[in-house]
Amino acid sequence: MRESNNNFGYLANLSKDIPSGLVVFFVALPLCLGISLASGAPLLSGLVTGIVGGVLVSWLSGSQLAVSGPAAGLTVIVLNGVETLGSFEAFLLAVVIAGFLQLILGFLKAGVIGLYFPSSVIKGMLAAIGLILILKQIPHFLGADDDFFGEMEFFQPDGRNTFSEIGYAFSAIQVGALFIGIISLAVILLWDNPKIKSNKVLALIPGALLAVVLSIVLNEVFIAFVPGLAITSSHLVSIPIINGFSDLGNELQFLDLGSLTNPSVYIVAFTIAIVASLETLLSIEAIDKLDPHKRRSDTNRELKAQGIGNMVAGLAGGLPMTAVIVRGSTNVAAGAQTRVSSFVHGTFLALSVFLLAGLMNKIPLSALAAVLLVVGFKLTKPALYKSQLKLGSEQFIPFIVTILAILFTDLLIGICVGLAVGIFYILKANYKSPYFFHKEEHREREVIRIKLSEHVSFLNKASIVLTLDHLPQNSHVIIDGENSEYIDYDVLEAIMEFKKTAHERNIEVELINIKEVSVMDLH
What we know:
The protein is mainly alpha-helical. It has three domains: 16-369, no CATH class; 383-430, no CATH class; 447-512, STAS domain (Transcription Regulator spoIIAA). It is built from 21 helices and seven strands. The strands form three sheets. A three-stranded parallel β-sheet has the order 3-5-7, with no helix packed on it. It has a two-stranded antiparallel sheet with strand order 1-2. A two-stranded parallel ribbon has the order 4-6. Helix 1 (14-39) crosses helix 9 (207-225) and helix 7 (175-191) packs across helix 16 (365-379). The model is unreliable at 1-7 (pLDDT under 50). InterPro entries: SLC26A/SulP_dom, SLC26A/SulP_fam, STAS_dom, STAS_dom_sf. This is Membrane protein. It is found in: Membrane. Keywords: Membrane, Transmembrane, Transmembrane helix. One of its GO terms (cellular component) is membrane.
């Protein structure tokens, strides 16, 4: 069903959304700075994009839980784009044009592409992101990694790779950072205890916030009494101190309209638009799977929102943005219910630039690494691997191939490899016949019967999902699989997600000869 369900009031969920927004802010802050650093862009440009993504795009978005900002997957495109165009100012023009192209894609309803990613590949992407978060945060947790906080590629800027970096980290542990990381991790895990969650007062305090505050206090104690344990500046958050608009003007750069006549600007813009749109659609599909309420996001609206966001970010001197899976999954894991959480995270990013830079610069990265270690584990739980294995080779092989491909390359390359394997299994299973469904209406009570064909493939998923999304309220829906010899797992999962939330539209669902499958949940 569509995400705009009125049952999810913004005011009613403030007690969950504000703490969640704070948690996402703590994760997003070093990511924005790190991605700027890795992209060779002004340090504040990543924060500008994070602010625009939170304050503006959150309200325009087609998703209640997605969080937008600069993406690690775009760093190479930014580096190459600036080099190709000769200046960051010319690159900003390409970002604005890319946003306009995304706006057009939204009006052309290109968002439907997101429904054609196989469930096994999306789950593989989530599991891979979880593994990468764990592997990449271990060196920061140990206080031994000088690479930017948030780099996700296998081969790293310092010449090491994901695994060799961990080996190096264990030989260069910073004891103070490790101690603070362990205490932070313990606090976050303790705060996840049902006894804490059941306490109305304590439940309002995010475990991550408590861990971050405690980490600052501990490091200040180290500085005052045990200097040998004090965390060095390279392992703390580092935001430029802005004392006025003149400082802000010195830190930011703005687009160069003189580059409109340069054909290369349009090539870079097209590249940004396509890659950012694909990454956004992948993230939205993944976040929908994590959403405990199983709301279906409007992907066309999301493309329009991203387009407007990139146009504004480019005009304000920011990096290109996408919906980012790391922030989105952190948002879900922290208990967010509506888009207010993303807005809160954007608001705090803005405050951190203008009012809180001094305080933010005291946060140890090992404490933030502890937050991401917990998020990573929730995304790649052993139970997920067991459930995929039980589904058979046609689901498990694309799942595991996607994980390995992302782990040893990057997000987009890994997804393409997983998609290729997934399509092979889809075509193998579905070469015989297409599907059809029959709908009956009875005047005495609106009864809608959807009769599935003998062979229902993943290729039919988009059509079925759209049909279920637009079923009328207060109806009795019968989904009949009696004549079906084969129903693809992705279609079964879509039906189960519909059944789980149909009561919110007062729809009664009756399944005939349809196998029950579980739907993904972080909670």
